[in-house]
Structure formats: C-alpha cells, structure tokens
C-alpha cells in the first residue's frame, strides 16, 4: 500500500469549517486502490501569527515541502483588513507558501452544475452550458515584483508589475495543453494596450501559438474580458491570465457557478500540489455553521485526479455533489430565493450528504 502524505492547513475563519469536510472526503478513499492517505495539520495565517508571530512558520514550511499534496482552507482576519498599517499579515503566509513551493499554475475550473442555474444572478439562457477553465499565473506579477515600498516619507507607495518570458511560457504551456484536450480554444487576457508586462505576455503567447496550430488563440483586454464573462460566458473555454487579473476575474466568474462557495482550485508547480477553495476566510459567516463546504470538497476532487491519478474517485466526488444538489439540498449561498423546494442545510449537514454517497 503506497502512503501519501497530506498536509492540512485549515487557516482562518471558515477555512477551518470547510476543510474538515475536504479531509473527510479524502479519508473515505484512504486504504483503497493501493493508496493510503496520512494526515498532518499545520498552522498558517492569522492563527499562525497568534501562535508564533509568523504567518508561515518554518515548521509548516518543512511539512509542506515533504508533502505529497496540501489541502488548504483560507487565511485572513478583519483585524488586518481594518488596519492597513499592520506589517505582519495573514496573506503573507499564503503568498510565501505559493512562492516557496513554486506553485506557479493556478487552475480554477468554473463548473456550473445544472441544478444551480437559478442560484446565479445571471439569466439561465445566458449561463446554460458554461464551462471555463482558468489558468491564473500564481507566483509572479505585481504580487511579488520588486521594488515594493513607501517613498517620500510614506506619502507615495510603489508596487511593481513584472513578468519574465520564462514565467509566461511555463503557465501558457499548461493552458495550451489543456486547450488541446478541451474545445481547442484559448483566450489570453492582458492589458497590452497599456502595460509593458502585458505586451511581453502577448508576445510570448503569440510565439507559442505557432506550436499549437490546432488551438484557436484569442487575445483579450482585461476590461473587455470582465464584461464578456457576464455577457456571454459560453464564449470562453480555457482562459490564460496573470496573477492579479486572474484573481479578480475568477471571483467574478464564481457567479457563473452560483457562489464563491462552489469554486475549487489546484495550485501546481514542479513539486507538491496545493488544493483550495478560491474563497477567503469569510468572517461575516464564520462560526455560524453556514459556510458552503463544496468548494473544499471539489478541491479534493481535483487533488484525487491531478496529484494521485484517481480519476474514478474524483468523478465519484463530483457525482456525489451533483446528486446532493439534485436532491434539493443547498447551503444558504446557493439557495434560490424563488424556489420553495430548496432544502437549506448547514455546513455539516451538506458535508454528511456528500460523504454518505461515496
Ligand atoms: N485564499 C485565501 O485564503 C483568501 C481568498 C480570498 C480572500 N481571503 C481573505 O479572506 C478575508 C475575507 O475576504 P473577503 O470577504 O473579501 O472574501 P471572502 O471570499 O472571504 O468572502 C466574500 C463573500 O463570499 C461569501 N463566501 C465566501 N466563501 C463562502 C462559502 N464557502 N460559503 C458561503 N459563502 C461564502 C462570504 O460570506 C462573503 O460574503 C480577507 O482577509 C481576505 O484577505 C483569503
Ligand atoms: C488572499 C489573497 C492573497 C489571495 C490572492 O489574491 O491570491 C486570494 O484572493 C486568492 O484568490 O487566493
Ligand atoms: Mg482571490
């Protein structure tokens, strides 16, 4: 039996509540198909700052580097959101983790379950059949560019938007390869009409397109993409974009799937894979038992498939989600106000419905 080490990082707020269910899903598959999962938990974010003063303690980093996969919840706390002057911040833990583990490719599938077509604020006839796979670059861009500093006695602030050809090439390669297995259409999103780093981005994608003659490549400006995503979501299939644009566009795209609570992601590089919902710590609902655990559960479906090659098990998780939604069970965020048949459940009841079907 092959042992696979999973590090679980619940983090802050609803991160803890939803990760419990992601982990339980993994446990149901442990010991089957020749793979046994072992679990280790570690600190990150506000919780880690409170315990150690560091948002990503060395002990956590060492465990992550030795892991086969990571199940992450979320970080963030209103204390820091409300006080921009604080120097040590939960999000630094997440960013450092992505950088240290070399997780440059963030895959964010936008899967609209038919049952949730009315949960979205977009008209059903615009939405039906929407299915998008985002490739968000995750370790470059203005998130990491230097210099980043205050100048002029703190009166001026600088961040640096920067990309190298190598960084664009490696994420673009993954997106092109994925496009080949899907509808052979790739939309690369940038702001090349203004930004030098975007012109480099476009240049690299154009060069690479010659090697992928079977893939139709479209270049789109970020502002247009933000508009078209809502106007005509079905016109997108694989979307390739940078760190900042990808962050914003995928929160927008979560509304195609009905809720932030539905969006899973995989962050990949050359070492371990990290799986997490795209949402944050959501302190507005934390501790109330109402958070949607499906993004964490669907992140585990990605883990089973991508990190462990357990395709049938991954499909089983997705089917369990689909079936539970068909039965009418909804957490608050995906409930349809116009339908009396929705059965509103909390985090744990939703999690249990899924586990029973595995
Ligand atoms: N990957 C991460 O760890 C991550 C991602 C985004 C934001 N954050 C952090 O989280 C904190 C809160 O940020 P925010 O409020 O802007 O974004 P958020 O994603 O935490 O919440 C946005 C909205 O979506 C709702 N929501 C999110 N996840 C949900 C779920 N599973 N079920 C039901 N509803 C859900 C929330 O209630 C809220 O109304 C901030 O400190 C931010 O920095 C962390
Ligand atoms: C919390 C924050 C640093 C993070 C990001 O901007 O990447 C989050 O919004 C995400 O989408 O994972
Ligand atoms: Mg985000």
UniProtKB/TrEMBL annotation:
Biological or metabolic pathway of the protein: Amino-acid biosynthesis; L-leucine biosynthesis; L-leucine from 3-methyl-2-oxobutanoate: step 3/4
UniProt entry tagged with the keyword NAD: yes
Entry EC no(s): 1.1.1.85
Binding site for Mg(2+): 223, 247, 251
All residue ranges annotated as the Isopropylmalate dehydrogenase-like domain in the record: 5-354
Pfam families: Iso_dh
Binding site for substrate: 98, 108, 136, 223
UniProt cofactor note: Binds 1 Mg(2+) or Mn(2+) ion per subunit.
PROSITE patterns in the cross-refs: IDH_IMDH (PS00470)
Secretion signal span: none
Superkingdom field: Bacteria
A Gene Ontology biological process term: L-leucine biosynthetic process
Enzyme type, top EC level: oxidoreductase
GO MF annotations, alphabetized: 3-isopropylmalate dehydrogenase activity; magnesium ion binding; NAD binding
UniProt key word Nuclease: no
Subcellular location: Cytoplasm
Cofactor(s) the record lists: Mg(2+); Mn(2+)
Catalytic reaction list: (2R,3S)-3-isopropylmalate + NAD(+) = 4-methyl-2-oxopentanoate + CO2 + NADH
Important for catalysis (site feature) positions: 143, 191
Similarity comment text for this entry: Belongs to the isocitrate and isopropylmalate dehydrogenases family. LeuB type 1 subfamily.
NCBIfam families: leuB
Subunit structure: Homodimer.
Function: Catalyzes the oxidation of 3-carboxy-2-hydroxy-4-methylpentanoate (3-isopropylmalate) to 3-carboxy-4-methyl-2-oxopentanoate. The product decarboxylates to 4-methyl-2 oxopentanoate.
Name recorded for this polypeptide: 3-isopropylmalate dehydrogenase
Lineage: Bacteria, Pseudomonadati, Bacteroidota, Cytophagia, Cytophagales
Encoding gene (name): leuB
């Amino acid at each position: 039996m092959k042992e696979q080490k999973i590090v679980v990082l619940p983090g802050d707020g609803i991160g803890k509540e939803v990760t419990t269910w992601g982990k339980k899903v993994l446990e149901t598959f442990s010991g089957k198909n020749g793979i046994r999962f072992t679990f280790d938990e570690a600190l990150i974010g506000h919780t880690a700052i409170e315990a150690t003063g560091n948002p990503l303690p060395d002990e956590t980093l060492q465990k992550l580097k030795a892991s086969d996969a990571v199940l992450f919840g979320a970080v963030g706390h209103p204390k820091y959101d409300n006080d921009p002057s604080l120097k040590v911040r939960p999000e630094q833990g997440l960013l450092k983790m992505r950088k240290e583990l070399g997780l440059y490719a963030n895959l964010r599938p936008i899967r609209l379950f038919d049952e949730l077509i009315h949960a979205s604020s977009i008209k059903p006839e615009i939405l039906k059949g929407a299915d998008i796979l985002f490739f968000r670059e995750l370790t470059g861009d203005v998130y990491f560019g230097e210099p980043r500093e205050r100048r002029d006695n703190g009166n001026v602030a600088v961040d640096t938007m920067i990309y190298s050809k190598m960084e664009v090439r490696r994420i673009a390669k993954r997106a092109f390869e994925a496009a080949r297995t899907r509808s052979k259409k790739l939309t690369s999103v940038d702001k090349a009409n203004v930004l030098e780093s975007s012109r480099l981005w476009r240049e690299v994608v154009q060069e690479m397109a010659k090697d992928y003659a079977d893939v139709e490549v479209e270049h789109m400006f970020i502002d247009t993409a933000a508009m078209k995503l809502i106007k005509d979501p079905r016109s997108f299939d694989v979307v390739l974009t940078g760190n900042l644009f990808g962050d914003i566009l995928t929160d927008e795209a979560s509304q195609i799937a009905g809720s932030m609570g539905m969006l899973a992601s995989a962050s990949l590089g050359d070492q371990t894979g990290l799986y997490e919902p795209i949402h944050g710590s959501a302190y507005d609902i934390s501790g109330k038992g109402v958070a949607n655990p499906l993004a964490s559960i669907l992140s585990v479906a990605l883990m089973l498939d991508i990190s462990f090659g357990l395709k049938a098990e991954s499909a089983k998780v997705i089917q369990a989600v689909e079936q539970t939604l068909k039965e009418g069970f909804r957490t608050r965020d995906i409930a349809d106000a116009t339908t009396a048949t929705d059965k509103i459940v909390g985090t744990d009841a939703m999690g249990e419905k899924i586990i029973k079907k595995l």
